[in-house]
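thought: user wants a sequence for this fold. calling inverse folding tool.
action: design(structure=
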C-alpha cells in the first residue's frame, strides 16, 4: 500500500517541495520527511530508514546531490530519484550517475512522479530479489554434495557456470575450467569418451534428460568414477544450454559396461535422494520406494513412514478418478506429463502439487514412478502476481503510462495494453520484435533511438529519450520513453524494460505557447509595456509557463462587454482543484478569489479601466482547495485591439507570494516581541534605580529602630513585645537591603570575573528572591550541595541568571499544575549541585513536579521568543540561558514529560580546577 511507503525528499526549492508534498498526498502516499540540507538528509536516512529518496542536485550545506548520492549508493541499499533541470542532465551523465533509479525534469506533473516512484520501487525490489536469489544459489552450490554445472553444447569446452566443488572432485582449480585451461572432455578416460559423448548427444537431440557414468583423470594422475546427470534446456525449439551435476562415485573405476544391478540400485537411490523433487515408486497402488523430499510433501517424519501405504490415501478426492485413469495401473505404458493435482497430507493439510509419471521396472516388477513438486507457494505467488498485474493495469489507465519490455536474446518486444493504445495497436497485429517497434517511429527520429539503445546495450546503462511514434490512424504522438536494463552474471544486457509516457498534450501546449507569444508580440506593436513585463519575468514565455513560477491568463472583452478567458497556462493546476476547474473553463478567475477580497478586486479592476490605466497590480487571497488559502500578486496588462476601445485583451500574470506574506507576518511578530523585550530591559534599569533610591529610607528605618532598641535596654519596664517588634523590624530591614543589593548586582550590564567562584554563593543569593514566595505559595524547596564541588572560573552574575530563570520557570510550572490538580497536590522544586561521576564536569540540576512539556515544546523551548505563557512570558529566558551555557563551554540538557514534570540540567567543565579526591560525595 502506498501509505506504508516512507519517502525522504532532499530539495532546496521551496516551490518544488510544496509541489511534491501535494502530489504525494494526492497519490495516497504517507507525508514525506523533507529537508533542504544534504548533511541532514544523511542523518534522516539513519533515523527515518526511508524506502525511497527524491533528491535535487543543488542543496543547502556543504554537500551537493551528487555527493549525497555517492554516500547513499555506497552505504545504503535505497533507490534514488533525481530532480533535475534539463541542462543538468549532462552533469549527471558526466559523473556517471544518470542511470539511477530515475530522474524527473522540473517542472513535472503528478502522473510522472507517481510512475517514476512505482518504477523505482519495482526495479529496486526486483534487483533485491535477484541478489538474494544469487546469494542463495551460491550458498547452495558451495554446500551441495555434487558439482552443479551449466555449459554450452560444445562437448564441455565452455562452461557457463561450474560449482566450486569441482576442485575437490578433480584437483584442478575452478579458474582453470572457467578460462579454458582445463576441460572435462580432456579428463575423460579414452575408453569411456565415445560412449559418454554419444549418450549426451542423443539426449540433446531427443530433448530428454540423461544419466551416464565414466572415469576422469584427477590432478594426481589417478582415475575417479563420475556420475553425470544432465538435462538440455530449450526455448522455442532452440537449445539454450545443458544443466546438470557431477557426482563422485565410491568405486574408484567405473564404466557403463561394468555396472552391476546392485550398484545400479544403489546409484539410483543416491541420485534421487539429492534431488529437490519428490520421487515415489508404487506397485499395484502401494508405495514401494520414496526419496527424502517425498517425506516432506506427504507430511511424514521419515521416508520409511510411507513405504507400504496406499498412494490413493494421499490423493485429494477430486483428483482420484483422473489419477486412477492415468497413473495408477502399471499396464498404462504412456508417460504422463506434468499436471496439477492436490495432495492430502498425513495431518489433513491440503497442498497443491505438480505431478508426472512413467512406467519403470523396479525390483524386477512393473511399477509407476512419480515425480512430485510442491507448487503451493508458486500458486500463491501467481495469484499475488495476478492481483499486482490488475493493480498495475489500473495505475496505467489512471496515469496514462504504458509499460514495455524487450527480451534482447529472443528479440521479443511486448507492450502493455495502455502502451498499445498509445501506438494505436489495440486490436491490430504487431510483430512483437524490436524492428517492429522501430518501424512505428518516424524516419526522422529512428536513428537517434537506435543510437540510444545501442549505447544502452554496449554500456549496460539505463536511458531516457523523447521521440514521436506513428499511429495506425495516420497521425503521430510524442512519447517519453525510459528504459531500465537487466544484465546476466557476465554483465551482458539480456532484457530492457521501462515506461512510455504520452507527452503529446505537453508538446501541443508548447506549440500553443509559441503561438500566443507571437500573438503577444503582434498585439504590442504599438505599446511595448505588456511584452516588456512578460520578458522581465523570464527570458521567454515558454520558460515562464513551464517553470511554473508565474501563471498566465488571457481574457478578451468583446463590444458587448462580456469577458471570456481564452487561454490559461497549464501550471494553474498547482492552485489545486479550483485551478483545474479554471483550466477546464468551468469557472472564471473571480471565482477563485477569496469572498472577503472578491468585491475589492473587482472594484479595483473597474476603477483602473475607467481611469484609462493600461497596467496595474494588486494583491489578494485565492482559495486553492477546501481549506488551503494562498496570497497572489496580480499584474494585469490591458491591450486595446486596434482603434476599437471596447475590444480589449487582458494579460493577467499571477505570482504566488504566500511565502513572502508568511515571512512578513513572522517578522511583524518578532518586531513586537523585540519591542516587548526592550520594555523589559528598560524595566530592569528602572528596577536598579528604584533599588538605589530605597536604600536611603531603609537605612533611616534601620538606624531609628536600633536607637529605640538601645533606649529600651536602658529603660526599665519596657513592654517585652515591643522589644521583639524592634528586633523583627531590624531583621526585615537587613533582609530587604540584601534583596536590593542582589537586584542591583543582577541588573548590572558589565560582568567582572572574581577569580574562582564557589557556586553555592550565587545560588543562595538567587534563592533570596524566591524563598519567601515559595513559602507563601506552599511550594516545597529542597537544596543539595555536594561538598566535593570545586570552585570554577566563571562569572557569578551570569550563573545567577541561570538560577533565576530555572526557578522562575519551575515556579510557573508547579503553580499551573496546582490550578489543575486536586487540593492535596503540593508543588516541589529540588535544586542539586554535584560533580559528574568522571569528575570532569560540575552539574546543576533543577527538578520540578509541575505541568511538564510535550516533545514539540521541549524541542523548541530554547528558540528565541518561543513561549507557552502567552502574555505572561517573553520567550527569551531559556534562549539567554543557552547563550550563557555556551559561554561557559558547557551543555544544557532538558528532560520533561507532559503532566509529570521537568528537569533542567547544566554541565559546566571543570577545566583546570582541582576536584577533591578523598572520600565519596556527600550532600550537605
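)
observation: tool returned 924 residues.
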Amino acid at each position: 500500500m502506498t501509505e506504508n511507503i516512507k519517502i525522504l525528499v532532499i530539495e532546496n526549492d521551496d516551490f518544488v517541495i510544496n509541489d511534491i508534498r501535494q502530489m504525494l498526498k494526492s497519490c495516497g502516499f504517507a507525508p514525506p520527511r523533507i529537508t533542504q540540507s544534504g548533511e541532514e538528509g544523511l542523518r534522516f536516512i539513519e533515523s527515518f530508514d526511508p524506502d525511497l529518496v527524491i533528491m535535487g542536485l543543488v542543496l543547502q550545506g556543504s554537500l551537493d546531490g551528487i555527493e549525497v548520492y555517492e554516500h547513499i549508493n555506497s552505504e545504503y541499499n535505497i533507490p534514488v530519484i533525481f530532480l533535475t533541470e534539463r541542462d543538468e542532465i549532462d552533469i549527471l551523465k558526466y559523473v556517471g550517475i544518470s542511470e539511477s533509479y530515475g530522474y524527473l525534469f522540473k517542472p513535472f506533473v503528478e502522473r510522472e512522479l507517481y510512475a517514476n516512484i512505482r518504477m523505482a520501487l519495482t526495479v529496486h525490489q526486483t534487483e533485491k530479489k535477484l541478489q538474494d536469489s544469487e546469494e542463495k544459489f551460491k550458498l547452495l552450490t558451495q554446500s551441495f554434495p555434487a558439482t552443479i554445472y551449466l555449459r554450452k553444447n560444445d562437448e564441455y569446452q565452455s562452461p557457463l557456470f561450474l560449482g566450486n566443488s569441482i576442485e575437490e572432485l578433480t584437483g584442478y582449480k575452478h579458474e582453470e575450467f572457467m578460462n579454458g585451461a582445463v576441460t572435462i572432455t580432456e579428463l575423460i578416460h579414452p575408453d569411456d569418451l565415445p560412449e559418454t559423448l554419444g549418450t549426451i548427444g542423443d539426449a540433446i537431440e531427443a530433448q530428454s534428460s540423461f544419466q551416464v557414468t565414466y572415469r576422469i583423470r584427477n590432478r594426481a594422475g589417478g582415475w575417479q568414477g563420475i556420475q553425470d546427470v544432465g538435462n538440455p534446456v530449450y526455448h522455442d525449439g532452440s537449445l539454450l544450454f545443458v544443466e546438470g551435476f557431477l557426482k563422485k562415485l565410491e568405486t574408484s573405476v567405473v564404466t557403463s559396461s561394468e555396472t552391476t544391478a546392485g550398484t545400479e540400485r544403489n546409484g539410483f537411490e543416491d541420485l534421487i535422494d539429492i534431488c529437490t523433487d519428490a520421487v515415489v515408486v508404487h506397485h499395484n497402488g502401494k508405495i514401494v520406494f520414496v526419496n527424502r523430499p517425498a517425506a516432506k510433501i506427504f507430511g511424514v517424519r521419515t521416508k520409511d513412514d510411507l513405504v507400504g501405504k496406499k498412494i490413493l490415501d494421499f490423493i485429494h478426492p477430486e483428483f482420484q478418478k483422473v489419477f486412477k485413469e492415468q497413473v495408477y495401473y502399471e499396464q498404462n505404458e504412456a508417460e504422463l506429463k506434468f499436471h496439477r493435482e492436490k495432495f492430502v497430507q498425513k495431518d489433513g493439510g491440503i497442498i497443491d502439487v505438480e505431478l508426472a509419471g512413467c512406467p519403470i521396472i523396479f525390483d524386477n516388477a512393473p511399477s509407476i514412478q512419480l515425480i512430485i513438486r510442491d507448487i503451493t507457494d508458486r500458486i500463491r505467488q501467481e495469484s499475488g502476481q495476478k492481483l499486482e498485474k490488475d493493480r498495475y493495469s489500473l495505475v496505467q489507465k489512471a496515469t496514462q503510462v504504458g509499460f514495455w519490455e524487450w527480451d534482447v536474446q529472443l528479440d521479443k518486444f511486448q507492450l502493455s495494453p495502455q502502451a498499445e493504445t498509445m501506438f494505436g495497436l489495440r486490436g491490430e497485429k504487431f510483430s512483437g520484435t524490436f524492428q517492429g517497434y522501430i518501424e512505428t517511429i518516424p524516419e526522422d527520429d529512428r536513428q537517434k533511438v537506435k543510437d540510444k539503445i545501442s549505447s544502452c546495450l554496449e554500456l549496460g546503462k539505463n536511458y531516457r529519450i523523447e521521440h514521436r511514434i506513428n499511429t495506425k490512424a495516420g497521425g503521430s504522438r510524442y512519447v517519453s520513453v525510459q528504459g531500465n536494463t537487466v544484465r546476466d552474471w557476465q554483465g551482458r544486457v539480456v532484457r530492457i524494460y521501462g515506461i512510455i509516457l504520452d507527452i503529446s498534450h505537453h508538446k501541443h501546449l508548447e506549440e500553443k505557447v509559441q503561438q500566443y507569444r507571437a500573438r503577444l508580440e503582434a498585439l504590442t506593436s504599438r505599446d511595448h509595456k505588456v511584452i516588456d513585463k512578460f520578458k522581465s519575468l523570464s527570458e521567454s514565455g515558454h520558460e515562464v509557463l513551464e517553470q511554473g513560477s508565474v501563471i498566465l491568463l488571457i481574457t478578451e472583452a468583446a463590444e458587448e462587454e462580456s469577458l471570456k478567458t481564452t487561454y490559461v497556462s497549464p501550471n494553474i493546476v498547482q492552485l489545486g482543484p479550483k485551478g483545474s476547474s479554471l483550466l477546464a473553463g468551468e469557472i472564471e478567475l473571480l471565482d477563485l478569489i477569496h469572498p472577503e477580497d472578491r468585491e475589492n478586486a473587482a472594484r479595483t479592476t473597474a476603477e483602473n479601466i475607467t481611469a484609462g490605466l493600461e497596467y496595474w497590480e494588486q494583491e489578494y487571497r485565492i482559495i486553492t482547495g477546501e481549506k488551503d488559502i494562498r496570497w497572489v500578486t496580480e499584474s494585469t496588462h490591458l491591450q486595446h485591439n486596434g482603434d476599437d476601445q471596447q475590444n480589449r485583451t487582458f494579460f493577467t500574470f499571477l505570482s504566488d507570494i504566500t511565502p513572502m506574506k508568511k515571512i512578513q507576518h513572522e517578522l511583524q511578530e518578532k518586531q513586537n516581541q523585540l519591542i516587548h523585550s526592550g520594555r523589559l530591559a528598560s524595566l530592569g534599569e528602572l528596577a536598579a534605580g528604584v533599588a538605589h533610591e530605597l536604600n536611603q529610607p531603609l537605612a533611616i528605618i534601620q538606624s531609628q529602630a536600633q536607637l529605640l532598641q538601645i533606649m529600651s535596654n536602658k529603660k526599665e519596664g519596657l513592654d517585652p513585645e515591643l522589644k521583639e517588634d524592634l528586633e523583627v523590624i531590624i531583621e526585615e530591614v537587613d533582609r530587604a537591603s540584601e534583596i536590593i543589593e542582589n537586584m542591583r548586582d543582577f541588573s548590572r550590564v558589565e560582568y567582572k570575573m572574581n577569580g574562582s567562584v564557589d557556586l553555592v554563593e550565587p545560588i543562595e543569593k538567587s534563592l533570596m528572591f524566591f524563598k519567601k514566595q515559595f513559602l507563601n505559595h506552599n511550594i516545597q524547596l529542597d537544596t543539595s550541595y555536594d561538598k566535593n564541588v570545586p570552585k570554577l572560573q566563571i562569572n557569578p552574575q551570569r550563573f545567577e541568571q541561570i538560577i533565576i530563570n530555572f526557578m522562575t520557570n519551575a515556579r510557573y510550572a508547579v503553580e499551573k499544575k496546582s490550578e489543575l490538580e486536586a487540593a492535596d497536590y503540593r508543588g516541589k522544586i529540588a535544586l542539586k549541585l554535584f560533580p559528574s561521576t568522571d569528575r570532569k564536569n560540575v552539574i546543576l540540576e533543577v527538578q520540578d513536579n509541575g505541568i511538564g512539556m510535550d516533545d514539540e515544546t521541549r524541542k523548541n523551548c530554547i528558540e528565541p521568543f518561543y513561549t507557552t505563557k502567552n502574555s505572561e512570558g517573553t520567550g527569551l529566558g531559556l534562549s539567554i540561558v543557552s547563550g550563557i551555557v555556551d559561554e561557559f563551554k558547557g551543555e544544557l540538557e532538558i528532560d520533561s514529560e507532559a503532566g509529570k514534570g521537568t528537569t533542567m540540567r547544566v554541565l559546566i567543565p571543570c577545566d583546570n580546577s582541582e576536584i577533591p579526591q578523598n572520600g565519596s560525595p556527600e550532600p550537605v
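thought: summarizing for user.
answer: Here is the designed sequence. The radius of gyration is 43 Å.
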